[in-house]
Design brief:
Blueprint lengths: L2 E7 L5 H7 L3 H12 L4 E8 L3 E8 L6 H9 L3 H4 L4 E4 L1 H11 L11 H15 L7 H18 L9 H13 L6 E5 L3 H12 L4 E5 L3 H8 L18 E5 L4 H5 L4 E4 L10 H11 L4 E5 L16 E5 L4 H8 L3 H25 L2 H21 L1 H4 L4 H32 L2 H10 L15 H4 L5 E4 L18 E4 L3 H4 L1
Parallel strand pairs: 5-6, 5-8, 6-7, 8-9, 9-10
Antiparallel strand pairs: 1-3, 1-4, 2-3, 11-12
Helix pairs in contact: 5-7, 5-14, 6-7, 7-14, 8-9, 14-17, 15-17, 17-18
Length: 485
């Protein structure tokens, strides 16, 4: 398994490093194409979220320098990057991908958003040819494992997300959100989750802003109590109001809490803005909760008196306190992951022996066919029934002879014993017959993938013309997963 993964996440790297590697959605396709252009990289995908940036590849051979690629692509020196990078290979990659998709490696363990983010990255990479016969089975299995973890444990029993943790932080700051005014910058999924949670905990007014005003309107329309900028309201106690981007700073000055989660590459809120807010607020404190990567809020704002800024790394303490109730579920999920990794690894190792098995069968069948042709003149006087008996006898002999080496190939493949595989290939001269097969992730992809036809012996024109058409028919032999793996 020539899988190689390299990346950073919230555990390995601080926010200031992660935001330098963050890839916005608009650039993800171009970045993936750049990854695929690296020598030896045959398949690849990139996962870029607020808490991680990871490069997953299949390589032939597994010699691509992904660290050099990252340094060149982001123009970052090795000394600034190397201490924070992690790298996994082979079965380690399988385990990591399964854990990420199952939300066991998330800042908020059990949050469901990560699976959707992984699927989006997978779909993009697949659409441009980055996902083929090696990464596709791995990712499909990862999605299945993630569903299994969610269905067989209680890790996702309650709704949690980075947005909900941000709201928990706001409640810790204020004690209660009742009567508070909140401005939400960003109308994506995270923004929707934050708005819902704010409303549930009593926020009186929520302003929703987005660079595209229509998206802010669409999100606001999902909640009760929407009023337009003209001031008309539906009479609900909680009011959700969309605002245009041009009015952002005017409304921001009235907000007690600003939650920002956009994909902007540069800060939206700067020190000068915060100073203006505080003049209008007459020094009443305000809080920024910045859950964007790169950051939407300039860290210098923290130095403005009365303004307090919390970023996504500050949410870790809150997330850890929420994790205590999920410890058992996480342990149960890890057991599932461990079992699934072992099963997948064994399947892939067994698949490594498939080309040798197919080559062995083809080699022995070629020998049988050649010997039958050489014996054709001496068999010419046999009846069709007698010829059929000879045919069946030689086939049975070949099957018995190949049984022991096939079992040896299976064992060597499962144990990763390359020396034994190489020895068998040499003894039976399989190099001339062996052809590469693609990685196998499911029984469906295995069935029919290694099919070949064994052509029954047909006497030549100098033998007999009375042989039936049935004796000349081809026999289909399917090498199926259950017989090879």
């Amino acid at each position: 398994m020539n899988f190689v993964l390299i990346g950073v996440n919230h555990k390995s790297a601080p926010l200031q490093v992660r935001e330098r590697l963050a890839i916005p959605a608009a650039r993800l396709q171009e970045a993936t194409l750049s990854l695929l252009s690296v020598p030896c990289v045959r398949e690849g995908m990139i996962l870029s979220t607020c808490n991680r940036v990871e490069f997953l590849t299949y390589q032939e051979p597994a010699q691509a320098d992904l660290l050099e690629f990252i340094q060149n692509y982001f123009a970052i020196g090795k000394e600034a990057l190397h201490p924070y990078i992690y790298e996994y290979r082979a079965s380690e990659v399988v385990r990591h991908v399964f854990r990420v998709a199952s939300s066991l490696d998330s800042l908020v363990v059990g949050e469901p958003q990560i699976l959707g983010q992984v699927k989006e990255s997978y779909s993009l990479a697949r659409s441009i040819g980055g996902i083929n016969n090696n990464l596709d089975p791995l990712m499909q299995r990862a999605f299945t494992v993630a569903r299994k973890v969610r269905n067989q444990t209680s890790i996702g029993i309650s709704s949690v997300s980075i947005a909900s943790v941000a709201v928990d932080l706001a409640r810790k700051i204020f004690g209660s959100l009742h009567g508070k005014t909140v401005l939400l910058m960003g109308a994506g999924k995270m923004g929707e989750l934050a708005a819902r949670s704010m409303m549930q905990h009593g926020a009186s007014t929520i302003y929703i802003c987005n660079r595209t005003y229509e998206r802010a309107v669409d999100l606001a329309g999902k909640f009760p109590g929407v009023r337009s900028e003209s001031g008309s309201a539906t009479g609900q106690s909680a009011i959700v109001q969309p605002i245009s981007y041009e009015l952002l700073h005017q409304y921001a000055a009235t907000a007690d809490i600003i939650v920002s989660c956009t994909g902007a590459e540069d800060p939206i809120f700067k020190r000068a803005h915060a100073e203006q807010y505080m003049q209008r607020r007459k020094q009443r404190p305000m809080f920024f909760i910045d859950i964007a990567v790169p950051r939407d809020v300039d860290p210098e704002i923290n130095s403005v008196e009365g303004v307090f800024v919390y970023n996504i790394d500050d949410l870790q303490a809150v997330a850890v306190s929420n994790m205590s109730s999920r410890t058992k579920e996480a342990m149960d999920a890890e057991v599932i992951i461990r079992t699934e990794v072992q099963r997948y690894t064994q399947r892939m190792q067994s698949a490594n022996g498939v080309p040798s098995i197919v080559a062995l069968q083809q080699t022995l069948e070629d020998v049988r066919q050649n010997e039958m042709r050489r014996a054709a003149p001496r068999l010419a006087q046999l009846s069709s029934e007698q010829l059929q008996a000879v045919e069946q006898m030689t086939r049975a002999l070949v099957h018995k002879l190949q049984h022991a080496p096939i079992q040896a190939i299976k064992r060597a493949a499962q144990e990763g014993d390359r020396e034994t595989l190489a020895l068998i290939q040499t003894v039976f001269d399989l190099e001339h017959h062996e052809r590469p097969t693609e990685a196998i992730g499911t029984a469906e992809s295995m069935t029919g993938q290694n099919e070949r036809k064994e052509t029954a012996f047909v006497p030549g024109p100098d033998a007999t013309g009375t042989k039936s058409a049935e004796s000349a028919a081809s026999k289909q032999v399917s090498v199926k997963e259950e017989s090879l793996l």
